[in-house]
Amino acid sequence: MKSFFTPPIGKIIQIKGQCISLIGNDIDTDRIIPARFLKCVNFDSLGESVFEDDRATLKGQHPFDLEENKNATILIVNSNFGCGSSREHAPQALMRWGIRAIIGESFADIFYSNCIAIGIPCFTLPKKSIQEIQNNKDNKFLFLEIDLKKSLAKAKDLSLNLEIKESSRKMFLSGEWDATSTLLDNKNLIENKLNQLPYIKFNTNFL
Amino acid sequence: MSKDTLFDKVWDLHKVSSLPGGSDQIFIGLHLIHEVTSPQAFGALKDKNLTVKFPSRTVATVDHIVPTDNQSRPFKDNLAEQMIETLEKNCLQHKIKFFNIGSGSQGIVHVVAPELGLTQPGMTIACGDSHTSTHGAFGSIAFGIGTSQVRDVLATQTIAMNKLKVRQIWCENQLSNGVYAKDLVLHIINKLGVKAGVGFAYEFAGPAINVLSMEERMTICNMSIEGGARCGYINPDEKTFSYMRDKLCAPKNEYWEKALRWWKSLKSDEDSIYDDVIKIDASKIEPTVTWGITPGQSIGINQQIPLLDELSPNDKLVAEEAYEYMSFKPGQSIKDIPVEVCFIGSCTNGRISDLRVAAKVLKDKKVSKNVKAFVVPGSEKVANEAKQEGLDQIFKDSGFQWREPGCSMCLAMNSDKLVGNQISASSSNRNFKGRQGSPSGRTLLMSPAMVAAAAINGKVSDVREFINE
């Protein structure tokens, strides 16, 4: 858990950092951030509560509590990570804990788009590669250098071809992952679309 | 790539532009907001010095944090009070219509929008809530979004999104007596898995879907997301149109006729192309109950919790986690497992027809003395209708607590929570670890009728033994 927090901004081309491994399929967003922490009007204090219940259950042995992981920035997960609730609080909590990129077997749709929208690239690797990283005890301190231009992750004796949606990769490289201004560029097209939609005309009672 | 499905038609109609990265800019016809996922979005608008582009296309209600016992203001929970106040302030400031507590139309956002006639065929609908897929029951393309995308919809009425693939789930034959829409969708998720829907929209079709009421169709589409599909829909038909007629916000007079003509043109073509087609035999489905920690871990009421060897390699990891968390043994029967809490409600099964079915089971029966049972209507309208029909009295006479509308113990953001490792029989949608408010609480998902049966017997029971009496 970092003592200060600066959100990502602009182009995201390279991410360097230590990996933290979290084993398990179908880890849902309720587990990433339990619902009781959603009672807030901003995201500021979520970092400390990430995986709160799982951590309490493991009494200090959860990866997010281990001293060796405290500076980790790249999360390694298995399949269908982030399923369930659409709460953006989940990636916001991970980001505020210190996570800057996630590499996994697969991600749930809404979680993936939330990550992109806040500047956390999510990459996929085949199950075998993920398990190799997760099970390699010699790699207790695996440092990766992710290059978004080449979709490549490199360590001392390791080079991994990462998969990422091409649209997401381009958005990170151009800095347009924060989509609002790109969307607003088309304001005339938006007006035109509104006027073309059949239901806008016949919904006279629409609120 | 899919072609000429309803999804393709609605997507193309709402496409504003192709964005430089390769995703599409999609216009959102109806934007629904609530107190949990919107405050940060309004905050971001302020930070970016932006306004709400089309305030009349956003509608708000309050559901997740509302107490269901005492709704007088200020709420006892300060944080909950702060959240509702923030929503009130934001709606007032940005001129957004807000259905507040006491308006007669407050309730769970996915119950409220259809009953007001806001949800209509052919629309794109977005909401900062994963169960937005519910609205697909009307032939709209509806999906959950995160808070940053809520911000984008407020600011631009559009979002950036990659087009989904389309999988048709063809449901043959009919559900048998005592088997409901909830059982069908739990069965589908079990067969396909909880991540099969990633990257897909699900089109539910076939004879077993056609005979379902609109409320049952909502239950099906609601749980698409539990199968990984962000969006689920059903082609609109006469049932859809007759449900919509005379709803408050439905088109009126000559506009109704125009709307109807357009709606009737909205369906997947006979020769449309799907990315995938799956067939399900509805007649083989039994009342279905989850035994684990994902909505995919379900079995028929007369089946046993699967042995590790019976599962595919991909399912084993989560199954082992589930045996341990649930303290259930592989091979154990699901029937007769004792339950301590029974919850009827949620955006999956908190509608009037759900309450009717449960009340029918409960009439002249008593809830087991070992069970705490409560029913939370999905909306103020549902609550009023239930009262007019005397359902509230049937619930109360049986020993169920009758509560005020809200999301309640589906996700336990209010004070309705499991305690310790209690087991609940729940008509909601998620049995995740800790979902119902206790980090060690255990949830068994089932239909509202099955929850009623479990409440009476104090253990997981086959509702068919009650309705065939």
Automatic annotation (TrEMBL), chain A:
One Pfam family per UniProt: Aconitase_C
Classification via Gene3D superfamilies: Aconitase, domain 4
GO cellular component: a single term: 3-isopropylmalate dehydratase complex
Residue ranges annotated for the Aconitase A/isopropylmalate dehydratase small subunit swivel domain, each copy included: 11-120
Entry keyword set: Amino-acid biosynthesis, Branched-chain amino acid biosynthesis, Leucine biosynthesis, Lyase
Catalytically driven reaction(s): (2R,3S)-3-isopropylmalate = (2S)-2-isopropylmalate
Glycosyltransferase in keyword set: no
One record GO biological process: L-leucine biosynthetic process
Pathway: Amino-acid biosynthesis; L-leucine biosynthesis; L-leucine from 3-methyl-2-oxobutanoate: step 2/4
Alphabetical list of InterPro entries matching this protein: 3-IsopropMal_deHydase_ssu (IPR004431), Aconitase/3IPM_dehydase_swvl (IPR015928), AconitaseA/IPMdHydase_ssu_swvl (IPR000573), IPMI_Swivel (IPR033940), LeuD (IPR050075)
GO molecular function: 3-isopropylmalate dehydratase activity
EC identifiers of the protein: 4.2.1.33
Broadest EC class assigned to this enzyme: lyase
NCBIfam families: leuD, PRK01641.1
Classification via PANTHER family: 3-ISOPROPYLMALATE DEHYDRATASE SMALL SUBUNIT (PTHR43345:SF5), 3-ISOPROPYLMALATE DEHYDRATASE SMALL SUBUNIT 2-RELATED-RELATED (PTHR43345)
Family: Belongs to the LeuD family. LeuD type 1 subfamily.
Function field: Catalyzes the isomerization between 2-isopropylmalate and 3-isopropylmalate, via the formation of 2-isopropylmaleate.
Subunit structure: Heterodimer of LeuC and LeuD.
Protein name as annotated: 3-isopropylmalate dehydratase small subunit
Species: Prochlorococcus marinus str. MIT 9314
From TrEMBL, chain B:
Taxonomic lineage from the root: Bacteria, Bacillati, Cyanobacteriota, Cyanophyceae, Synechococcales
EC number in record: 4.2.1.33
Keyword Metal-binding: yes
Binding positions for [4Fe-4S] cluster per the UniProt entry: C347, C407, C410
Family: Belongs to the aconitase/IPM isomerase family. LeuC type 1 subfamily.
Biological process annotations from GO: L-leucine biosynthetic process
Organism whose genome encodes this protein: Prochlorococcus marinus str. MIT 9314
Stated name of the protein: 3-isopropylmalate dehydratase large subunit
Pfam family, one: Aconitase
Gene name in the database record: leuC
Origin: domain of life: Bacteria
